[in-house]
Specification:
The complex is a heterodimer of chains A (189) and B (196). With 189 residues, chain A is mainly α. In chain A, 72% of the residues lie in helices and 0% in strands. At the A-B interface, helix 2, helix 3, helix 6, helix 7 and helix 8 of A face helix 1, helix 3 and helix 4 of B.
Amino acid sequence: MRRTAPKPPIATDGVAAQASEAAPPELDALFRTHQPRIVRLCRMMLGDPDEGDEVAQEVFVRMLAQRRSGVEPAQWGAWLTRVAINACHDRRRSGWWKWWRRDGRELLDADLTTPRTAEDEAITHEQGAAIWRGFRGLSQRQREVFVLREIEGWPTREVGAALKLTDQAVKLHLFRALRRLREILRSER
Amino acid sequence: MSTCLDERELTRLYVADGGEMPAARTHLEGCAGCAARYAELARESRLIAAAIAAAAASGATMREYSAAERAGKIAWRGRPPTRTAGWFAGATVFGAAAAVAAMMALGWRPAAPARVAMAAAARTIAAAPVSYASEPRYRMMSDPISAIAYGEAASAASGSGDAAFTNYGGAGYYGDLLFCTPGDDSELCATSADRG
């Protein structure tokens, strides 16, 4: 496989600007409504902030293309989530993205603004780091199932449909992921 | 269900969809201990989900965690590879020892090359003693192993009264013959009997 030079990450503002130029205010609103969730989802699915951000950009570019095609989905939120899941799968399958990962790469993205919950406050920095390490140590399937069911709150059937898994397989992956992450949480106490 | 639920059952219940595992749910309603443990499990799951979501929402936090993870990996990789190297070295030694033991069990014995060559040469001489006796000097000067073999064979032959091997001073002479050719009367090649 030929190793290519890393592409500079695209700033999220770039897509926002593109969306604004393309212009309808409702498109801008659509972007601003879903962007934090989609970026977070892609980061979690890929376990890497840089790759997550890049894939999220691709998702919103597809949203623009879909918008221009004139065929609009019934629910943009669900459509974007499915496109994001598929884009993350494609990125993972391609394999080449690993070659782009570099230590100390300069990043242009801004933190997403999400309100801190009581659970956030209850987790120490060390616990958070340990949980993140454990999360990255899960298998790809376990990570995806955990994200969609425990964080995104999807029902088992929808998770299975999105990931092409049976309900039983979804529960099994979630069971294993949960057991592993709880072990880590307890060991950090 | 009368017995209390263990951690595995509680986790399965948490993962299950509503309506599944009705017996466990019934037990949970009537057992304060299990209900408390289930509530703790649910709380921990929320904590974990919140921690992951918070890390993913903050690029800086996510990067900090990843950097710490990489640093940990690099530190691990940077240590002297004693564990892996030791394991491989041990496995190699054990494998070699096992192979030798297996071969010896099958009847193989390590051969001493000089002894093998000598035995082969002696067999050759015994098969044709006259030809060696006719020109021993030249053969043995070019091949020390043949000389040794020649000495042994000559000793054996002199003991049995073979005239071909008694021309150079009898059994005592040939008994001490090592790298000297028959008829060599230098001091180094003199027998202990001659010197004495």
